[in-house]
Amino acid sequence: xxxxxxxxxxxxxxxxxxxxxxxxxxxxxxxxPTRVAGLEITDGxxxxxxxxLDAGLPVDGGDGGEIDKLAANAVADVQRxxxxxxxxxxxxxxxxxxxxxxxxxxxxxxxxxxASTAGLVNAFYCxxxxxVAWDRGGLLPTLNDSIGPAAVMAVLAHEIxxxxxxxxxxxxxxxxxxxxQQADCYTGAYLRxxxxxxxxxxxxxxxxxxxxxxxxLFQIRDSAGVAYSDDGAHGNAFDRVSAFQFGFTxxxxxCAKIDxxxxxxRSTQGGFxxxxxxxxxxxxxxxxxxxxxxxxxxxxxxxxxxLAATPPTLTTGAACGVTTEDALASYCSEANQINLDxxxxxxxxxxxxxxxxxxxxxxxxxxxxxxxxxxxxxxEGGFRLDGPVAAQRTACLTGFWASTIVDGGALxxxxxxxxxxxxxxxxxxxLIAADVRGRTLPAGFARVAAFRDGxxxxxxxxxxxxxx
Length: 468
Ligand SMILES: [Zn+2]
Description:
Pfam family, one: Zn_peptidase
Helix content: 40-55%
Low-confidence stretches: 6-25
Bound molecules: zinc ion
Membrane topology: Single-pass membrane protein
Subcellular location: Membrane
Keywords: Membrane, Signal, Transmembrane, Transmembrane helix
Protein name: Aminopeptidase
Number of domains: 2
């Protein structure tokens, strides 16, 4: 996140126009906060169903251990999905993969598709030999242990997504970001089928299970500074999660529509100048206990949301009216103020150092405060401030605020900022998607979907119409 440097008056005028322009589209359908893309929110276990028989796919180089079993069965299940859906949706037969390879990145290495696997902590598809390969020593056990089996399912589904696009005739020379976004989208389509209970082998819950998938997408995001148009780009977390959600919500036909123009129109993975500038900008972390930072945040909120009444003031103080522990910010409607736990906010606003525990990053802290500010706006609009719909509307309006932070305003988004919002929304106590009492929407999927709605709507009114 960057603070303003000059040009204030002229550019804040632009911001105001963005904030005030009401582009009223069609009538928005209300979104049910107790569901995830139409499915009930569940919190059960994810992974192989208990007692399922091994699919018995041959694995070249495997050690027959638990991870290889999980991976090979996931491949079998994803292939079953495509055997049904490729003919039904694209009128093509699905030819199974030619070879599955398991390797240990910590081992001596072997050559697959012209590359050595020594030290290759990865999973990949190569179209020339129609191979899906995975690292059973490093990548998959790490994902399985630190996140959960749904993360492993997602990785294999992603790689087979590449096999699908090759069968559908996407040219090998297509930009990497198109291939990767499509593969994330196909992953969503497959996991929807599993979440609907249609897979004979696997299960995934829409709450905890999909949180695992989104966490995996966050962890394997491009680092801040990579632009979507760069060779080898996979997408920042915000764009990867978007593609996944499109597939989950709308199915594989939506995924096939992802092309260069479509990505260009919605990508948030900007390259502001050179990679070095990007890295420097991403490393600039603004602390909320800096008085100027708080003043800039207040300015940006007042510009984004025009209140008829006096806007609330940002002040330090004990949490007000919340039922959860650890609420770092709270909206006190009677006192018309937002009480901040500055130490706590600085803690989550400080990114983790390499190999050490830490918070998330400045944007996570700023967005938590912004989310409480939107409650003043909701109160003025006559909306209920408590309950899951209020939590959704809050995420939507916070997303809208994020979309008004444009170059040259009081605050400027740095590469990686929106990914910090994603990380915040995957925490148990996410305030971005919480009601006035600090109660968070139960599914990460629903939190992020509401935030993106507001971010891409260009009109704050749409949040009140859709989340009511
Ligand atoms: Zn990929």
